[in-house]
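Retro notes, item 3 of 5
We never archived the inputs for the 3-hydroxybutanoyl-coenzyme A complex last cycle. Fixing that now. Sequence and ligand:
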Amino acid sequence: TEQDLERRFQARVDAEEKIEPKDWMPAAYRKTLIRQISQHAHSEVVGMQPEGNWITRAPSLRRKAVLLAKVQDEAGHGLYLYSAAETLGTTREELVEALHRGKAKYSSIFNYPTLTWADIGAVGWLVDGAAIINQVALQRTSYGPYARAMIRICKEESFHQRQGYEIMLALAKGSAQQKAMAQDALNRFWWPSLMMFGPNDDESPNSAQSMKWKIKRKSNDQLRQEFVDQTVPQIEVLGLELPDPKLRWNEARGHYDFGAIDWEEFYRVIKGNGPCNRQRLQHHIKAERDGDWVREAMRAYEDKRRGREAA
Ligand code: 3HC
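Structure as it came back at the time:
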């Protein structure tokens, strides 16, 4: 019966077995994985926009080459994750269609503008820093293709974070104006980076089930706390002011305490009313349409090749 199948499935998950595409899985497990993996892929692709915005304006050839390499990596991560989602019986076209119809999300953080070059440092350091903490945990997710995608992606992400931190270090140790730019970028990206980890655990509708199915291995609040504990010492090395007056080490807890997150802002942004939501989606829709001729050419070529083979 269905109950027996579900029981056997849960026993496999509890025994830390990897679930593979051809294995039986509850429909709801498949559904939530398509939701999460596709939104992860959308995040990687949309995340190319704020950084891409500065490729032509990087302050040196080296910075330009490094940023170009990072943005190309994000594209690859996106395509890798769409392939992982396709193993669950969906198609890339469906996933992109859902994004364009506002039915699928991408990470809130990419709805904030990159106003100065220091923002590119803050994005690499804070956003990729947060993404790495989330993705390292996801290397142990119960669905095989997703876990393997994470292992590969995490290898590339550490360079992303290091190049961002190096930009921040150069600015923070530079002129007064450069240090002020770095401080401004930290102030604007700090809270949105904390929001990347999702709502508090008791406000998170998907967490309980995702933890039971070991899709999620650490909770939103656990990962957020790890990020804060790792990043505050880095702010001190930069010699910048803490972006939250309530940030302070709590010896008893062995963690940093920090102030309240503005969840109003979070829900406003994920509902589509953040600073750049409309432009990010319009840009993605246009890029997709501009690429139609490439997909048509590939299909025509494939048909011809098949035709030749059949003949
Ligand atoms: N941005 C947008 N939506 C968010 C969000 C965020 N930062 N945090 C949570 N949400 C959404 C969830 O998707 C969910 O909505 P849905 O049911 O329509 O999908 C709702 O808010 C409630 O959140 P939950 O905590 O209940 O949802 P999850 O259990 O899915 O947890 C998550 C949210 C922690 C983001 C989880 O989905 C996850 O770990 N996803 C994979 C990681 C990911 O997407 N990372 C993108 C980071 S950016 C990146 O990787 C690019 C980097 O290389 C720069």
